[in-house]
Design brief:
elongated; two-stranded parallel sheet; single chain; 104 residues; 3 helices; mainly alpha; 38% helix
């Protein structure tokens, strides 16, 4: 009989897909590295998506890092206060966005 030997793909443990995103910040700043360690822990140990968002933004380059609105930060702090978790620190660039035009 006729049979065909097909060559397979040698997959490593993680598959063939390359890693997407950074695993750590490129910054040499030790404080940013400490914050990344902290937020890695918080993301792993809590259900809060906010910690994951902050971790993702800390790893981004400054050019690609999106700002965090003050209203979103205030909402996050209100939720944390209800759960009696009092400490919070704004890490990314925070902006106050006004939907109304300034009068000229």
């Amino acid at each position: 009989g006729l049979f065909c030997l097909a060559m397979g793909i040698d997959l490593k443990a993680g598959g063939r897909r390359p890693t997407i995103g950074r695993k750590e910040p490129k910054s040499k700043n030790i404080y940013i590295k400490l914050l990344v360690k902290l937020y890695k822990f918080l993301t792993r140990r809590t259900e809060s998506k906010f910690n994951g968002v902050i971790l993702k933004r800390l790893k981004m380059s400054i050019i690609n890092r999106p700002p965090l609105s003050i209203s979103r930060l205030a909402k996050f702090i209100r939720v944390r206060r209800r759960r009696s978790l009092s400490s919070s620190a704004p890490l990314p660039t925070t902006t106050a966005f006004s939907a109304t035009r300034p009068s000229s």
